[in-house]
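Task: sequence design from structure.
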């Protein structure tokens, strides 16, 4: 009996502990494996398309290259899991714990990661196009050069996150917390902004300022005094109007500015 069939038979008999199992390259399409324990297992290059893996434990599991398209990973534990080059497009990771996971090169197009915990995860160069990351925990996460275009990051925590060179065009950043985040070189065109974020507004002004020292100084004022839009519109500064128009120009047409 091959490993896949043996696994499914044992699962049907209420076995849930598959810690350390070798399922490299296995095919498990649309299977129900919720609440199972795959800690320290090798599921690299495994095909898990459409499977139910909710509340499953993947502690330090090797899922590199795995196909997890349209899988249900709601409330799954993926702490320190290896997901390098895995495909999670359309997957549901609501409330998942993805702390310190290796996620370089993965594809998560259209995935739902709302309320997920991705603290200190490596999502550099990841394709998160149209992903739902609302209310997610992304503090200290590496999102450098990630594709977050049209992603929903509303109410997300990105404290100390690395977003250098990330593509945030047309993303929803409403009420997202960027305290201490590095947004250098990020694409912020046509985004719904958190107008209370000094890091976000300062980066917009710094990019527009180029080598103009006086305009750069305006951006630095926002960072120095930890202030956002309300401070800028009341600021007695010769370049305040330039700053206001610069932010209005780059923001989404759906952006709501205080009267």
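Answer:
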């Amino acid at each position: 009996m091959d490993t896949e069939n043996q696994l499914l038979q044992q699962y049907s008999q209420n076995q849930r502990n598959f810690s350390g199992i070798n399922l490299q390259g296995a095919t498990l399409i649309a299977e129900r494996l919720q609440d199972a324990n795959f800690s320290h297992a090798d599921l690299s290059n495994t095909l898990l398309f459409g499977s139910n893996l909710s509340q499953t434990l993947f502690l330090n599991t090797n899922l590199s290259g795995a196909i997890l398209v349209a899988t249900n990973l709601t409330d799954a534990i993926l702490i320190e899991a290896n997901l390098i080059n895995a495909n999670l497009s359309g997957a549901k990771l609501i409330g998942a714990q993805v702390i310190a996971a290796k996620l370089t090169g993965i594809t998560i197009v259209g995935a739902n990661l709302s309320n997920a915990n991705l603290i200190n995860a490596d999502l550099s160069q990841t394709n998160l196009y149209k992903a739902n990351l609302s209310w997610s925990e992304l503090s200290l996460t590496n999102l450098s050069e990630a594709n977050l275009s049209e992603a929903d990051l509303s109410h997300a925590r990105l404290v100390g996150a690395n977003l250098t060179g990330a593509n945030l065009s047309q993303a929803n950043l409403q009420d997202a917390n960027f305290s201490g985040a590095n947004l250098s070189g990020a694409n912020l065109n046509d985004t719904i902004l958190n107008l209370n974020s000094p890091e976000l507004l300062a980066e917009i002004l710094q990019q527009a300022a180029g080598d103009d020292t006086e305009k750069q100084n305006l951006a630095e004022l926002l960072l120095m005094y930890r202030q956002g839009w309300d401070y800028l519109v009341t600021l007695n500064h010769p370049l305040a109007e330039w700053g206001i128009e610069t932010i209005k120009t780059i923001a989404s047409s759906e952006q709501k500015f205080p009267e």
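The radius of gyration is 21 Å.
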